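The following block was generated as part of the benchmark described in Methods. Ligand: zinc ion.
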Amino acid sequence: MNTKTFGGGKKPSERPSKICPVCQKPFAWRKKWARDWENVIYCSEKCKKTRA
Ligand SMILES: [Zn+2]
């Protein structure tokens, strides 16, 4: 059993999520972040700019 595998074909509810520090809203993993999820901090470009 390998539970560390990060598969993209799982149920949406099994996808990871984070809380955006700007708008305080949870946002879920997105396909476009597949390679960069560890570095994703903000839910959107808008929040990213707001923070800066
Ligand atoms: Zn946000």
